[in-house]
Amino acid sequence: MRERVVVLGPPGAGKGTQCKLLAAARGLLHLSTGDLLRAEVDAESSLGQQVKAVVARGDLVSDDLVLAIVRNRLAIHREGWLLDGFPRNSTQAAMLDDLLADLGQPLRVALQLQVPEEELVARLLGRGRCDDSEVVVRRRLQIYARETEPINAHYQARELLKCVDGLGSVEDVATRIGNSLDEREHGEETIC
């Protein structure tokens, strides 16, 4: 079965790291929306020009524009894939559902990396980025909780949500993610 996975989790949960490992281990295409947006701008495509104009104004890239870029990549890559950074809200989750139905590529699972807030704060502050003060980090986590966590209910209602403990070494978390995907394939899963 082709693996089609959305990876969810708050800032600092390790989504990017785990997606890279999972993509390499299972031969999946890792689609990071941030990377996709930058690639479109660098390629100077028509979508990239739109993204560049939006960013230059200081605005957020619209759901429709992000979805168009995701659509372009999924339309040409019909094998397994991971989406990292999309969807970010309930509207995007519903739009993604429609897109995947149109493409005949049903989502297999939505993995939610779970990490306690204090650990997230410590991880994000430990990155050493100049704009990451504790106040800024906690605000980002509040925004995530308000805007992104409702996606969990969306995928739980569709019996696609799997929660994975994001604590421990990178390797331990990767093993838990792999086991979670294998359980789903063999019908032994436990949903959040």
From TrEMBL:
Organism the protein comes from: Candidatus Synechococcus spongiarum LMB bulk15M
Pathway info: Purine metabolism; AMP biosynthesis via salvage pathway; AMP from ADP: step 1/1
Entry GO MF terms: AMP kinase activity; ATP binding
EC number: 2.7.4.3
Family statement drawn from the similarity comment of this UniProt entry: Belongs to the adenylate kinase family.
GO biological process, one term: AMP salvage
NCBIfam families the record matches: PRK00279.1-3 (NF001381), PRK14527.1 (NF011100), PRK14531.1 (NF011104), PRK14532.1 (NF011105)
Binding site for AMP: 33, 38, 59-61, 85-88, 92, 129, 140
Taxonomy of the source species: Bacteria, Bacillati, Cyanobacteriota, Cyanophyceae, Synechococcales
InterPro entries: Adenylat/UMP-CMP_kin, Adenylat_kinase_CS, P-loop_NTPase
Subunit: Monomer.
Name by which UniProt lists this protein: Adenylate kinase
Catalytic activity: AMP + ATP = 2 ADP
